[in-house]
Amino acid sequence: MTGPGSRPPAGGRSNRRRDTDVSGRFPAALVRPGPVNLCLCHMLVLTGFLMPLALAFAFRFAETDDRWLRSHYHYLRTTVALFVIGGGLGWLMILFGVPYSTALMLAGLAVIAVTLVLIAARSLTGIYCAIRRAPLRNHESFLL
Fold first, then answer.
1. pTM for the full model?
2. Interval 101-124: pLDDT, tens
3. In sequence order, what are the residues at sequence separation of 6 or more whose Cβ sits closer than 8 angstroms to the Cβ of residue 31?
4. Residues 6+ apart with CB under 8 A from 100
5. 42, exposed or middle or buried, with CB in 10 Å at 0-12, 13-18, 19+?
């Protein structure tokens, strides 16, 4: 291609956007609403102790323009709520089962185990749907 539009300006820099330069965009994508942030949030939920950071992102980006993003962030909030409810109930069952019943302690352990498996399944489903940019089946449910 020839002509004045095909040459870079005299300063040596082109005004065209370079799609191959991702070094400046990747860290910013972690803190903007989008699929990269959703995958990061689900990974934070899977770690457990960084779950409050994922919850902060979910509350911060709850009012985005895209409907599928709003549903994903709501899904994250319900996942964290499931962890708090299931984990708290399981620990209370263990705590009250110590002086009274071994069966109550084992039931508390089972509740915690089921809660952790459900959170792992929800997080992996969320990552899969975020990568595909697909909406979730039912983001208001506490199950999958």
1. 0.71
2. 899 999 999 999 999 999 999 999
3. 37, 57
4. none
5. buried
